[in-house]
Amino acid sequence: MTKAEFKSLLDSMAEAWSRRYYAAAASAFAEDVRYADPLRYSFSNREQLRAFFDADEGYEQRVEWHTIIFDEAEQAGAAEYTYDGTHRYHGTVLIKVEGARITHWREYQHTDSREWEEFVCGTAF
């Protein structure tokens, strides 16, 4: 996967989440994906992940990617984001891909109602 393809994958997932097309969002992940926020939850397959996405409590969903980094040799990347849904989360995710699918997703996030620029206190790239 190239950096452009990685960015396109993330943009496609953001679009699917915003439309609440959770099957489409989940299809970006491998069947045996490892997906976690180490302090809150972890999932070991796409079926569990899809159920997690579906449990949106009726809230509109929105993702904005701020910084996207991708190492083509390692097939690994990172992204900073804001996710609005049940709460507003600002976070960072580390991602490993194989082929066209995400195999590993580890996110670290904070619940915070501020806008991204205020949240990062002038450290945005």
Radius of gyration, in Å, reads 14 Å
- Summarize the helix and strand pattern as letters: HHEEHEEEEH
Strand fraction equals: 35-45%
Sheet/helix structural class:
alpha+beta
Number of helices: 4
Quote the average pLDDT.
96
Can you tell me the CATH class? Alpha Beta
| Count of individual domains | 1
| Low-pLDDT sequence parts | none
End-to-end Cα distance, whole Å, is: 24 Å
Number of separate strands: 6
Q: Give the % helix.
A: 25-40%
Which CATH architecture would you pick?
Roll
Global outline: globular
Strand order of the largest sheet: 2-1-6-5-4-3
CATH topology: Nuclear Transport Factor 2, Chain: A
Question: Which structural traits does this protein have?
Answer:
single chain, 125 residues, alpha+beta, Nuclear Transport Factor 2, Chain: A, 6-stranded mixed sheet, 28% helix, globular
Describe this structure as you would to a colleague:
The protein is α+β, with helices and mostly antiparallel strands and 125 residues long. The chain has a single domain, classed as Nuclear Transport Factor 2, Chain: A. The protein is 28% helix and 42% strand. The protein is built from four helices and six strands. The chain has helices at residues 3-19, 22-26, 46-54, 116-119, and strands at residues 29-37, 41-43, 62-71, 76-84, 88-98, 101-111. The chain has a six-stranded mixed β-sheet with strand order 2-1-6-5-4-3, covered by helices on one side. It starts with a helix and ends in a 6-residue tail after the last helix. The relative contact order is 0.20.
